[in-house]
Prior knowledge:
mainly alpha
Amino acid sequence: xxxxxxxxxxxxxxxxxxxxxxxxxxxxxxxxxxxxxxxxxxxxxxxxxxxxxxxxxxxxxxxxxxxxxxxxxxxxxxxxxxxxxxxxxxxxxxxxxxxxxxxxxxxxxxxxxxxxxxxxxxxxxxxxxxxxxxxxxxxxxxxxxxxxxxxxxxxxxxxxxxxxxxxxxxxxxxxxxxxxxxxxxxxxxxxxxxxxxxxxxxxxxxxxxxxxxxxxxxxxxxxxxxxxxxxxxxxxxxxxxxxxxxxxxxxxxxxxxxxxxxxxxxxxxxxxxxxxxxxxxxxxxxxxxxxxxxxx
Length: 296
């Protein structure tokens, strides 16, 4: 069983870190908004279809009026804002930086939860935030000069990280009664619905190439990341929340490897040092949780 858990943890890290490269491939042939909307609807429809057609558990039901409101807000933050902005940012950001930025989510969550839940961050959490953000800045610096990344792209990426961190904090405040598959299916689908008017208004459909690379990107993001990746994540969370967070440490490493291997993005001393700073920040920010998990 332990070997199985390690295998699922590695699979999660690989799938999660592959999202930035897959997105980068897709936005080369389509408007980011079109790529995002198609991905959301495919993932949402597949998850909901599976849940309602094949699940025999009575908990797989339609949401109540209150749950619709909760799912709508969660979907707007977690899908429309976060993933919509993230996909758009990847058009102007190196794939490796996109993966590295995602790994800072636990650190941003610390800041948001301190404001939202009136919780004062601890000294080690502040250390983690400073190290993590500093690491992203160090890794980004040479890419700005080489035009792999732009200031606009980094700004959109930062806003998207704040949005998903806000979604995570909001998720933690709700006592959900729906199964995880239904929550994920509805929030992705509703997020796509909220994004659709913007896509129809602003996206350049004429410049979109509906070629195998585009569809390969969409299907990978929908099936491998949004469905398989999240199923792995929920499995790890059920076993041990603290140990599950450890797998986030590998995401920057896999992310830069995929960016170098598949997109020929440079790996420099700045890349390595920045990644180490982010990993150190993640460790420092969660050191209290990790210690508590060992003594429990």
